[in-house]
Amino acid sequence: MNYERSVILDVTPHDGRFDVSFFESAGHSVLICHGPDHGVLCPILKDRCPKVEDAHGVVFQLDLDRPQHRAILKRYREVLADDVPLWVSVRPGQEVQYADHLADVQVVVGEPGAAELDAFSALVEASEESR
Q: Which pTM value belongs to this model?
């Protein structure tokens, strides 16, 4: 797809999502992915994912307690260009428990607030300007 604005991929469970309106008001398009249903393999683990390929930034909040979700995060780290910001929101304690999966990404413990969302938006914009 061809987007006029930078694209943020919001990867959150079915029952949650980041403040899409915040990103949209900052001039970004937002794609939403709720991750795979239980018992279904995520497309990025089979081959590729067009949503990830279109993303200029990814905010990830799937449950790292699930092995497939950790595998998805690992795959994102492998396929995203180095200049594409990847933020991972974790529950308290997961930043320690899964530190090896989070070594090279920005980690937010709990729900990101306006300051974190604004900082992520700025990173995406800076990344776009450097291309």
A: 0.88
CA separation for the pair 113, 92 (Å, rounded): 15
Look up residue 122 and give its amino acid: A
The count of other CB atoms within 10 Å of the CB of residue 3 is 12
pLDDT at 19: 65
9 pairs with which residues across the strands? Answer: 31, 58
pLDDT per position as a tens digit, 71-120? 999 999 999 998 899 999 999 999 999 999 999 899 999 888 888 888 88
Q: Which amino acid is at 128?
A: E
The fold for domain 7-130 equals Rossmann fold (3.40.50)
- Where are the domains positioned within the chain? 7-130
| Beta-bridge partners for 8 | 30, 57
Q: Where are the beta strands (DSSP E) in the chain?
A: 7-11, 29-33, 57-60, 86-90, 106-109
Query: What are residue 7's phi and psi, to 5 degrees?
Result: -115, 125
